[in-house]
Write a sequence for this structure.
């Protein structure tokens, strides 16, 4: 997975510390001003916890571009699915 970009909007952060307390990769820390900061951005795995749990909407994670090719089983279509799709009439 590519590198994710993590942003904390300091004007919106009220310093609850939820992001720092629950981030599994310790991407955040609470600074001396009481607000969250990104301290380990390269460790972010885009787990999806911080953004929706920030009560102030102060955290944004921008997913990095993937450098992995998709698994063949994820891209292959089952011939039975193609047949079923053709049988559906509007």
């Amino acid at each position: 997975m590519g590198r994710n970009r993590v942003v904390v909007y300091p004007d919106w952060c009220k310093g609850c510390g939820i992001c720092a307390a629950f981030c599994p990769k310790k991407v955040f820390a609470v600074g001396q001003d009481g607000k969250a900061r990104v301290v380990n951005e390269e460790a972010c795995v885009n787990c999806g916890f911080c953004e929706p749990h920030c009560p102030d909407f102060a955290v944004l994670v921008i997913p990095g571009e993937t450098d992995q090719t998709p698994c063949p089983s994820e891209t292959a279509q089952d011939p039975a699915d193609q047949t079923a799709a053709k049988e559906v009439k509007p």
Remarks:
- Helices lie at 18-22, 50-53, 72-75, 79-87.
- The longest helix spans residues 79-87.
- DSSP finds four helices and four strands in the chain.
- Strands lie at 5-8, 28-30, 36-38, 59-62.
